[in-house]
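Figure S4 source data
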Amino acid sequence: MNETTLLSNTRRQFLSNCMTGMGAAALSSLLNESVEAGAATARINPTAPQQAHHAPRANRIIYMHMAGGPSQLDLYDHKPQLSARNGELCPDEFYEGKKFAFIEGHPKLLGTPFRFAQHGENGAWMSEHVPHLSKVVDELCFIKSMQTDQFNHAPAQLFIQTGSAILGRPSMGAWMSYGLGTENQDLPAFVVLVSGQRGPSGGTALWGNGFLPSVHQGVRLRSQGDPVLFLTDPEGISRSQRRMTLDKIRALNEIRLQEVGNPEIATRIEQFELAYRMQQSVPELMAMDEEPEYIHKMYGTEPGKKSYANNCLLARRLIERGARFVQLYHWGWDSHGQDKFESLRYSFVERCQQTDRATAALVMDLKARGLLEDTLLVWGGEFGRTPMAEGRSKTYIGRDHHQHAFTVWLAGAGVKPGYSHGNTDEFGYDAVEDPVHVHDLQATIMHLMGVDHEKLTYRFQGRDFRLTDVHGKVVKEILT
């Protein structure tokens, strides 16, 4: 390069040209490449299957997030002493110097209004409002000592799904896609299904890619209407025309990729190609009417309608086809008791009716198909509910948000069936035995998938980030 050329280059042009060689070298070492016969252009596939850190117990995950915070005290954490002292002023240490979302003054204890009974070989206590799940309780592994740092919906949902209460971090599903890839190149590695009154408070950031390449963000499928918006070709455009258009766009993108080495261009190429392949794979996936009648009866599904039951069946169909991480969100568990729509006796019972049957069916169906052996199920909310009544209504009862103790359960690959880990005090206020932090749960889930949570990192803004930040330990006691 002569002196005149050097002097005419701007700083931006110089850095862009430098990135060509360095970026290409970095991409070739980090991403899988295949060279199309007769062409010299590298084809990048950032979602190809990757080697795990250790032998995985689970190959895929279905995570059922009950957005709003289901009450563990009215589902799984049976507290007779709390019921015996229902209506009494709560102990001073429960509220003095404590922060709650809505409770003010000196609240009263609130025992569950529901009946509990023991089920399964280990006599697990279960609420009357999960009758179907009670029949498969011997497959479940409860963690009754969960704790989180957040007590409001959006931050708590972000925290349990991304490891941070601040927007901008990759979600758990995005980390799994980045670290492990997918076994089916015709479907996304990370799929999201939403049901309930509305979407979760944390919004699309709950399944976002953060600073990871955008190909790893969750793809939301809809169980009603077009499964993916804008997936269908415009009227009058044939498949051959669509293919020709994509080939031209890809060629331009590959030229630019060689020039600047930006990984997001490789992501763009892959997203166009995935969308094209999904035009064939998604309609087949969504053809739930092909399922036998006994399956629809077991799940309580109604093809063509938006429902949690439909999403549970779709989740099974997705993991059968190689999806790595399927995330279900079902909103409506925010049982404050201020009105009928947030009451334990009404809306809470309705949420149980919407989810109990299909959740149990998913467990049974996976086991019958031999899929539970290498599929991990996770069920839980962003936090729990207080053992004190919120007291905003004289007609309806409810509980406030609670970060110090809540329950999640896992089932399937690598976890102890029929087991309960940790415990809370006699009122269910605090985790007093084997507390498990959100970061511990995340580390354990990753461990079961063959991923070391301390090793799966991504360098961003000068430092290495990971899902569990600088925290988290694997809860080995729940592992088989």
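Figure S5 source data
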Amino acid sequence: MYNLKISAVALLACILLLPAIAIAQLTNCTTLPSRDVATSIRDLRPSDIKAVMAMGDSITTGFGVRGAANESYGISFSMGGDSGASTLANFFLAYNPNLRGFSKGTYPAEVCYGANCPSIRYYPAQDVNNAAKSGSMVSDMVSKQVTYLIRQVNMNPDIDVKNDWKVLTIMIGMNDLCASCMFDLPYLSADEYENNLMATLERVRASMPRTFVNLVAGFNISQAYDLSLTMGRCENVSRPLFVQCDCLFKPENGRIRENIDASITQFNQRAQNVATYYQRKAYDNFAVVVQPFAMDTHISELPGKFLSRSDCFHPSTHGQAAMATALWNNMLTPSAEKKTSIDMDDTPICPTADTLLYTY
């Protein structure tokens, strides 16, 4: 019985430590030789990145990772800077200890929904360059988030806006679809989505040169409903919180789930159109790349630990870490070889002296 107790404790410790394993593996990679900083974005390496930035919604704020009423910015897949967290920011930090912009900590959530959020409040000491807000729609990004981000980066004395290489990760659009089914609002059209992306990126390009932009493809979010059906504890968790996309979890809303998934497919295609536009421009100091790891991910086929135990909808610590690893690996892989789905067992790629942040 004593040995069984020890084994149970050890197993629990392993489960809790899993999200930290990826960052530990990356820090054990071979040290790269020093080299001159890239002068063209087509020669960009992980060690060249001096600042990270993000725009988005509740996935990027780490909503629900540590309690349904909290946001864990420090664990956010793209921006988290908490010690030991497996995040894109910490992966870059392993290759440039002078990295700036990552967010830290956990604090009470603030939810913003389009017209219901006339003024977005930020906490620069914790958010830093993470402009995402839970509940945000694409219109919030183009009107508010990008304004905060440009101001924040320009005010940081440790960032040379013109000369430092920066990575910006954008993942947004799902709240527009959720709001339309919950509040009987019209769906954001694919045209509007593409136009808003273009308007945002043009402001970024004009104000913050030397930026590599990740456009993260959207999940097929209806499958959160399918996964929740296999998790008894989720039966009554998802519905009360409107920020969760409540309408997805009503059994009778099968047609709504189909419509949302069709719209996400269109959004992902429009994101690719935007990326193609910038690829054809071939700027030396600005690039936009779709990172497709979520595009073919079947949430309903992932382990239950991918979702937060607090709300059964947002990624858990494990989910955020898996997304970070998938994003990092996508960035270090040419387009034709990028994975389009998440494998929870994947580990971060160890870059070599020749590894690029691929723009093609």
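Residues 47-337 form a domain with the Rossmann fold fold (CATH 3.40.50.1110). The chain is about 40% helix and 10% strand.
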